[in-house]
């Protein structure tokens, strides 16, 4: 085994805490990695790969500058050798939290920042060199945890004796189009704790993309600081964040649907923000915009099955119990009926998923979003719905999906 002479740089990062009902979670972000300097004196120990290397598989939406967008975008590749480092470019947000893992090991977490190279894999990394034979290809995966922050990939490095290997995509692909409920806002690990993540990662054998951003409306309107709605933004690579405006202004890149894997199933969960009176979206505008979005999806992915999620819209006390609120109930059902009658009769590509009864009032946190358990419940029902309706097969065989959900009672007598 070759020992690499690397220069470790001191990097100051701020690691946030995770509160569980007001109590600090111990070691919430295991796996912090250090920054290194690859210089002329040690570069011979490394093999460099540019961000456009064919061995790299980008997950979710990344633009032509190799900047990540939306919720839980990622990077995946196979590698050989003992060391893997990743360089991040100038458009990487300071201290952004990424999750990473080797093969089926548990997710690890590290803060990274711009214009720096981080050593993610060493011979001591958990899971490395457990593969038989010792020089077999191992898989590395990285995901950005927060929708508002992103990374710019500047390059990948392996030890000079190793290299990168392309990991083939799974044949099936799921797209989730949504707002904060789908992006994972206020969930423990944000994007990686969302029901969208639980759905895509939960199958274990599908590709998936979460095109969701907090506060965004379905209708193309200014909502909670988002300048555009999903009928416009979904057709573009970047989201509606401030960093997107800073980088792309009012001319964001169009998403090249033909250059990427087509979706087999599209899940749409939109309308909660449109329903807020402060955003001034009428019922008629919501209905027409929903039809427009489905037409957009169907035009680029004519074979995709589209699932419309009913809106639970919170819970409130009714007498001495609780009841689900709901929003745009009639309008979403009418959209479903529109695409299953008239000129669309018999095509059967739009489905209605009724969330009533899946979540209860204690599955919603004080910030009006699902708890981690709420996200798991919704993902579990969607997994079964898609499996039964579209002949998907469960392929997850044991690796964790959501991180740090090991809750149990260790008291036998109480």
Please outline what is shown here.
With 414 residues, the chain is an alpha+beta fold. It has helices at 180-183, 195-203, 230-233, 242-248, 283-300, 329-338, 372-390, and strands at residues 7-9, 19-20, 23-24, 35-37, 46-49, 57-62, 68-80, 84-88, 96-102, 108-112, 116-121, 138-144, 153-159, 163-165, 172-178, 206-212, 265-269, 305-309, 315-318, 321-324, 350-353. It starts with 6 loop residues before the first strand and ends in a 24-residue tail after the last helix.
Characterization of this structure:
With 414 residues, the chain is of the alpha+beta class. 17% of the residues lie in helices and 26% in strands. The protein contains seven helices and 21 strands. It has helices at residues 180-183, 195-203, 230-233, 242-248, 283-300, 329-338, 372-390; strands at residues 7-9, 19-20, 23-24, 35-37, 46-49, 57-62, 68-80, 84-88, 96-102, 108-112, 116-121, 138-144, 153-159, 163-165, 172-178, 206-212, 265-269, 305-309, 315-318, 321-324, 350-353. The strands form five sheets. A six-stranded antiparallel β-sheet has the order 1-4-11-8-13-5, with no helix packed on it. α2 packs across α7 and α5 runs parallel beside α6 (329-338). The longest helix is centred in the last third of the chain and has 19 residues, at 372-390.
């Amino acid at each position: 085994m070759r020992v690499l002479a690397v220069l470790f740089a001191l990097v100051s990062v701020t690691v946030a805490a995770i509160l569980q009902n007001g109590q600090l979670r111990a070691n919430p972000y295991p796996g912090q990695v250090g920054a290194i300097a690859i210089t002329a004196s040690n570069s011979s120990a490394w093999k460099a790969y540019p961000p456009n290397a064919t061995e790299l598989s980008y997950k979710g939406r990344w633009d032509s500058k190799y900047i990540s967008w939306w919720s839980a975008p990622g990077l995946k590749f196979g590698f050989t050798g003992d060391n893997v480092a990743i360089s991040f470019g100038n458009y990487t947000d300071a201290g952004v939290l990424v999750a990473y893992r080797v093969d089926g090991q548990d997710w690890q977490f590290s803060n990274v920042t711009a214009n720096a190279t981080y050593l993610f894999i060493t011979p001591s990394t958990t899971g490395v060199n457990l593969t038989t034979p010792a020089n077999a290809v191992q898989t590395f995966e990285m995901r950005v945890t927060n929708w508002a922050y992103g990374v710019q990939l500047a390059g990948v490095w392996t030890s000079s004796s190793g290299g990168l290997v392309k990991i083939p995509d799974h044949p099936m692909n799921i797209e989730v189009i949504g707002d904060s409920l789908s992006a994972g806002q206020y969930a423990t690990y944000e994007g990686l704790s969302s029901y969208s993540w639980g759905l895509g990662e939960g199958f274990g054998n599908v590709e998936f993309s979460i095109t969701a951003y907090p506060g965004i409306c379905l209708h193309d309107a200014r909502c909670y600081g988002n300048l555009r709605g999903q009928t416009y933004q979904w057709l573009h690579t970047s989201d509606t964040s401030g960093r997107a405006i800073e980088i792309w202004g009012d001319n964001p890149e169009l998403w090249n649907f033909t250059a990427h894997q087509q979706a087999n199933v599209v899940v749409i969960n939109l309308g909660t923000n449109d329903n807020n009176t402060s955003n001034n979206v009428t019922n008629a505008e919501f209905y027409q915009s929903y039809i427009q979005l489905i037409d957009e999806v169907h035009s680029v992915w004519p074979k995709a099955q589209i699932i419309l999620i009913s809106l639970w819209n919170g819970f409130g006390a009714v007498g001495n119990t609780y009841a689900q609120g709901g929003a745009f109930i009639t309008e979403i059902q009418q959209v479903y009926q529109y695409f299953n009658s008239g000129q669309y009769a018999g095509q059967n590509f739009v489905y209605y998923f009724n969330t009533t009864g899946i979540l209860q009032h204690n599955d919603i946190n004080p910030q009006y979003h699902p708890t981690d358990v709420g996200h798991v419940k919704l993902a579990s029902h969607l997994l079964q719905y898609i499996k039964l309706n579209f002949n998907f097969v469960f392929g997850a065989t044991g690796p964790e999906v959501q991180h740090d959900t090991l809750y149990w009672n260790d008291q036998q007598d109480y």
